[in-house]
């Protein structure tokens, strides 16, 4: 048992717990009426991210409602490009927008002001820890350099990240430099979150799945390996979950190559393969978020299949990607009850 009796930390240390502890990616978000209310009062999405008081409030909302085993810091992966003065904004109905970066922009990037810019986020971590129940773990996070870079290059979300893939082929040196800068800043940011009270951190590589084998090694594995090595060199007790969405078969070596303590699985990962991955250590996932929207038997059957395949090993129950705005909060109540009712 971990010193503070936080189940997710125990699982990250390799323990099997039945029923498994759970949290949901994007658990604080638009499917919750209380989030929509705070979000409307905050003004812009980034104002919400940079208000320690409001970020704390929305982080705690899903904990109050559902008693998840972990809270995740409310912020966004794009606060790093925002701190790098890439003019990040979130326009209603459009997702994120940034000023697209070019080779000169990459060479001119300066990390000097980043820690200062992110101070309100770190302050929120401390406040959240102070307000959480003792047994609830607190997760920090950052985006993986590849995923953050895709937004910085295109200047917006795209379905296949073609602009970033093309840029990486045409300008390999500038692209490698961008990944290095992001890896270094992300490692410092995660260390600051850990020092402020995060029990573990998750690295989100939401766009890992668009990469070929060699690019996966260079753009997804290597920068994440650098971040984890840097964090663990400075904070040996730190635990890291790495979520490489869409990585499929490449997940086989991902844990070992990156040094992640646990790997996150999206819903396309077959459960037989997931069980195989679990032989090497803890896994997290992997319910299709659409099952939470559908509810009923689609929800129940999805949950049961995961528990049956992965419940006898170290598992953090989660979705395979973020919960979506159209999910009914009552379906989440049902999910929590079903997972918690499932003792071996
Ligand atoms: O999980 C949590 O509850 C913590 C908060 C969190 C947010 N974004 C809040 C958010 C986390 C961990 C993220 C990570 C994030 N942000 C990722 C990686 C995970 C993933 O979902 O793939 C990515 C790619 C982003 C970038 C981003 N932020 C996009 C593409 C969008 C627009 C799409 C959308 O869902 O609206 C955002 C906005 C965003 N980040 C919202 C929230 C709650 C919605 C904005 C709003 O409330 O107006």
From TrEMBL:
Highest taxon of source: Bacteria
GO molecular function, one term: uroporphyrinogen decarboxylase activity
Catalytically driven reaction(s): uroporphyrinogen III + 4 H(+) = coproporphyrinogen III + 4 CO2
GO biological process: protoporphyrinogen IX biosynthetic process from glutamate
Pathway(s) annotated for this protein in UniProt: Porphyrin-containing compound metabolism; protoporphyrin-IX biosynthesis; coproporphyrinogen-III from 5-aminolevulinate: step 4/4
Site (Transition state stabilizer): 76
Family, per entry: Belongs to the uroporphyrinogen decarboxylase family.
Free-text function comment from the UniProt entry: Catalyzes the decarboxylation of four acetate groups of uroporphyrinogen-III to yield coproporphyrinogen-III.
Protein name, entry field: Uroporphyrinogen decarboxylase
Source organism: Shinella granuli
Gene name linked to the record: hemE
């Amino acid at each position: 048992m971990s010193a503070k009796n936080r189940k997710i930390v125990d699982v990250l240390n390799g323990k099997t717990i039945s029923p498994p502890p759970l949290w949901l990616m994007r658990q604080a978000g638009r499917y919750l009426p209380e989030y929509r209310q705070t979000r409307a009062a905050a003004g812009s999405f980034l104002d919400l991210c940079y208000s320690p008081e409001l970020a704390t409030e929305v982080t705690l909302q899903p904990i109050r409602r559902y008693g998840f085993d972990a809270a995740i810091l409310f912020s966004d992966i794009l606060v790093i490009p925002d701190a790098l003065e890439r003019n990040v904004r979130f326009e209603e109905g459009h997702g994120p927008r940034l000023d697209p970066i070019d080779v000169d922009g990459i060479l001119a990037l300066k990390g000097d002001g980043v820690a200062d810019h992110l101070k309100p986020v770190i302050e929120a971590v401390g406040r959240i820890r102070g307000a959480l129940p003792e047994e609830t773990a607190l997760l920090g996070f950052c985006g993986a350099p590849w995923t953050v870079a895709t937004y910085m290059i295109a200047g917006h979300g795209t379905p296949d990240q073609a602009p970033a893939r093309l840029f990486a082929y045409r300008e390999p040196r500038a692209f490698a430099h961008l990944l290095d800068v992001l890896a270094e800043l992300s490692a410092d940011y995660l260390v600051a979150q850990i020092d402020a009270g995060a029990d573990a951190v998750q690295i989100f590589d939401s766009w890992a799945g668009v990469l070929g084998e060699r690019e996966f090694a260079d753009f997804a594995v290597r920068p994440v390996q650098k971040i984890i090595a840097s964090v663990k060199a400075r904070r040996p007790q730190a635990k890291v979950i790495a979520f490489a969405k869409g990585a499929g078969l490449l997940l086989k070596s991902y844990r070992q190559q990156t040094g992640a303590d646990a790997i996150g699985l999206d819903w396309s990962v077959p459960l037989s393969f997931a069980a195989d991955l679990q032989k090497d250590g803890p896994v997290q996932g992997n319910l299709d978020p659409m099952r939470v929207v559908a509810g009923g038997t689609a929800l129940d059957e999805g949950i049961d299949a995961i528990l049956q395949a992965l419940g006898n090993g170290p598992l953090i129950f989660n979705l395979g990607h973020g919960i979506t705005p159209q999910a009914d909060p009552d379906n989440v109540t049902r999910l929590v009850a079903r997972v918690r009712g499932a003792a071996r």
